[in-house]
Specification:
478 residues, 5 helices
């Protein structure tokens, strides 16, 4: 049975162009509406400064800048608080929205001692776990060499020999076959973890986690008298993964040439190591060309030294005596001027469930330099336990601004700690005496948009607060 072909009659002429035009207009309308909604929604998350306590004009002389946003998408509100006046700028798909501030990451491992290497390799047992698994060579030894691998913010790394240790019981190091489909070769024998007591015999953090500009290169703060190195400031130069891959082999595993895991690479050159330093805490480069070193001497006195380009000390200050603690941690807080350096120093010695807890009052070191000399060198305590995200000196150098997010997370649920709603709390103290001069909150004005965690294309969204910091300190906004 044949089907009749229907031909449009009079008045039924088809006009596909008109339909396409209608669809195009509708699509544009949807896009415009979405854009208006996006802009309206984000501009609704405005920043407002609410003052709770204000004596005079305490915010004059301070400049604080940063940004608020989510981990994804790349939309952020940038803010600057200058002399008490708040300026904001909304940036959609912000090209500067970098979330991870690179740091220095040290790891520990154990390698074969060169003196016992040949015998250990000869005694190794080779097996293949599974039918298609790579072969493994396992050897048991009583002496291992401790090695640090230190990853640097410029995507290079160095490896440092921390010396041999003899063990009461034998441990097994493993070399794993690689390039299974090509010529056989092995990675060298290694072990990441020993017993808890053996791992505790050498520190897991031999360097401060922040690098700094030192001359034409980078610097590190080596914290302890360890691995034949005194505590102090060091020039550092790492190798890229490609450069490491080009290192000459200096050992064998089952007849295959390897670069031994006991081989050092990269350079760590002493720049300034004060004779009285018991522990170096942190370093920073300053605007006058000096380099700052914060350290503890043998009497647990917190000291600050300024060092010139030749590695000679130009100024020295004894700041305060710290309480004894098993571990001392220091970090340089975000800063937008390298004339100043504010460092947070805290002691830890209570270990519960493998975590260290602070048992001492944190100390804040506030330093300003000019022409190789300290013009401000003071300390104060965080007596209100604010644990601020950043701390600034004012222009006059007589007041201190604490800035911190006032939201705490309990079991993953955000809880507002401030009386003015969720946001960033600001407090200003006199440097001399620590009297509170100002207390306010920079609120978002739309807490509902910040409370929940969302999913964006399957990714978990979290609210982020970043303070601007200098690129030379690892900051990513300048």
């Amino acid at each position: 049975m044949s089907k009749a072909l229907r031909i449009p009659g009079p008045g039924r002429t088809r006009r596909p162009g008109l339909a396409l035009a209608v669809l195009t207009v509708a699509s544009v309308a949807v896009l415009v509406a979405a854009e208006i909604w996006l802009h309206t929604g984000w501009t609704g998350i405005g920043l407002t400064l609410r003052s709770q306590l204000c004596n005079g004009t305490p915010l004059e002389g301070f400049t604080l800048s940063g940004s608020l946003g989510w981990t994804v998408p790349q939309n952020r509100i940038h803010f600057t608080l200058q002399d008490g006046v708040l300026h904001t700028e909304l940036r959609l798909d912000d090209p500067d929205a970098v979330h991870d501030i690179p740091g220095v990451v040290p790891t520990r491992s154990y390698a074969l001692s060169p003196e016992t290497r040949d015998q250990a390799d000869a005694n190794a047992v080779v097996n293949r776990p599974g039918i298609e698994g790579n072969r493994q060579a396992n050897t048991t030894v009583n002496t291992v060499r401790r090695m640090y691998t230190i990853w640097l913010p410029d995507d290079t790394e160095l490896r440092v020999d921390a010396g041999d240790v003899s063990l009461s019981e034998g441990v097994t190091l493993t070399a794993t076959e690689e390039n299974l489909l090509d010529d056989f070769s092995y990675n060298d024998y290694t072990l990441q973890v020993l017993s808890e007591s053996d791992d505790a015999s050498w520190p897991d953090l031999p360097v401060n986690s922040q690098s700094f500009v030192l001359g034409a290169g980078k610097g590190l703060c080596w914290t302890q008298n360890l691995a034949g190195r005194a505590p102090g400031l060091y020039k550092v130069q790492g190798l890229t993964r490609y450069q490491i891959g080009q290192l000459p082999t200096d050992g064998t595993v089952q007849g295959y040439p390897v670069v031994c895991n006991s081989t050092e690479y990269g350079t760590l050159t002493p720049f300034y190591c004060p004779a009285d330093a018991q522990q170096a805490l942190a370093g920073a480069s300053m605007a006058d060309g000096s380099t700052l070193l914060l350290y503890l001497n043998g009497e647990n006195v917190l000291c600050a030294d300024l060092v010139n380009a030749a590695g000679n000390r130009t100024d020295h200050r004894e700041l305060t005596t710290l309480e004894k603690a098993a571990h001392i941690y220091a970090k340089l807080l975000p800063r937008t001027t390298d004339r100043d350096a504010v460092l947070w120093v805290e002691g830890y010695d209570q270990q519960i469930d493998e975590y260290l807890y602070s048992s001492t009052q944190p100390v804040i070191a506030l330093l300003r330099t000019e022409n190789g000399k300290f013009t401000v060198a003071s300390t104060m305590e965080d007596k209100d336990h604010l644990n601020p995200d950043t701390i600034l000196l004012n222009e006059a150098g007589d007041k201190v601004l604490f800035a911190y997010e006032n939201t705490v997370f309990q079991n993953g649920v955000p809880t507002v700690a401030g009386k003015n709603g969720r946001g960033m709390d600001l407090r200003v103290y006199d440097l001399d005496g620590g009297r509170l001069q100002y207390w306010g909150t920079m609120t978002t004005g739309a807490e509902r948009d910040w409370y929940a965690d969302y999913l964006w294309n399957g990714k978990l969204l979290r609210r982020e607060l970043h303070f601007d910091s200098l690129q030379k300190d690892g900051g990513n906004w300048k």
